[in-house]
Amino acid sequence: MLGSRNSRYDPVAATRLHSFGRTLNSVKTCAYRARGGHRSRHKGREYERVAGPTKTIGYTLLARVQAELGLRRPVEEVLAEVFGDPLGPNLTFREAVPLYLEYATPRKKATTIAADGPRLNYAAKEGWAKLPLRDITQRDVSRFVTKLLRAGPRGKPCATSTVNRYLAAISGLYRWAIREGYAKENPTRGIERWNETGNARETYLDADEARALIAAAPERFRTLIAFAIGTGCRRNEVRSFRWRDVNWKRAEVHIRAENSKTNRGRPVPLTSDLVARLKALQALQAARRIDGDECVFQTRDGVQWSVQAVRRDFAKAVDTCGALAAFKARSLRFHDLRHTYASLAIQNGVPLHTVSRILGHSSIQTTMRYAHWCGEDRQKAARAVENALRGGGVN
Fold first, then answer.
1. Distance spanning both ends of the chain, measured CA to CA
2. Vertex 123, ends 169 and 110: CA angle to 5°?
3. Which CATH number fits the domain that encloses residue 100?
4. What is the pTM (predicted TM-score) of this model?
5. Across the chain, how many H-helices and E-strands are there?
6. Which residues partner with 49 through β-bridges?
7. Which residues pair with 266 in a beta bridge?
8. Is 383 helix (H, G, I), strand (E, B) or coil?
9. Do residues 182 and 96 make contact, with C-beta atoms less than 8 angstroms apart?
10. Phi and psi (nearest 5°) for 198?
């Protein structure tokens, strides 16, 4: 028990933070445990500290805390100074998640944070997440992996590739924690990752299905989905696309490096249909006095489409589209529109290396997954070899 009569005075106290969902403007004493422990709340979180052998000491130290917070100093810094108890020894996984995300946000891509944040917060709901980082074992994380394979956040079994992403997020947090002195070992080490070679799902739409899907999309979503099919851009590239990135004269858009998965910018050509759709969209948004820095694709409120909104409206378009076979409708994802662009381009004679540059692949090997669409080229090669063997030369 904190601050009990028989306990030794320990200036390095345990820390427990709990989210209350509301904000308090100042630190207030809420309860005392035995003689020298005190619990306080600040900005929606609760802090417990060992103050010493008596309540008087607790009140004295609390007064110092209130005075320092009045100078707008960070609460963790003040508590560490007054009580001499840095977070390190007892920082739990649940407490570490927001601290790690705060550290990682300016250092990692927004898409990485957007993906890792929910994964870490989901892991933070586990019972072992209440333990200090140093006490979490490989067995704890392994059991979490087993749980994900049975049922993930959406109630369905997670794919092995998704489990790998959870492990990568937890491992990233622990690498930070070890550098900061919050932990000594990474419990994800020794947990075997799944081989993802050959696991890529490839669903393609033919031209008729693509047109039907665009027509079935909600009106406010139609240009966005047409843009995704007509350019092969990734979801985040589509969401982050801004008016200043459009080159009307060259009929192309520039994908900025900070929005690209490979951290490299690239030009992407526009079809005449997309140019017309974008000009019509620009005319509709002109009433809000848009500037070049605004996102092209916005909700009714004039804000950037969220990942959840894109996922929701894409699902509506797929459900409404009667041209899709049932098996294809069940498996179709927004990213498959990128596969559709690649397959349509290659089937219509666009060289693989050109498709690779447009899609922004870091290696031509990535584009080779679409090589099976080059049926005509294979037949031409067969005929050429046949003619050569017959002595007729190569045509």
1. 89
2. 40
3. 1.10.150
4. 0.61
5. 16, 6
6. 38
7. 255
8. helix
9. yes
10. 80, 5
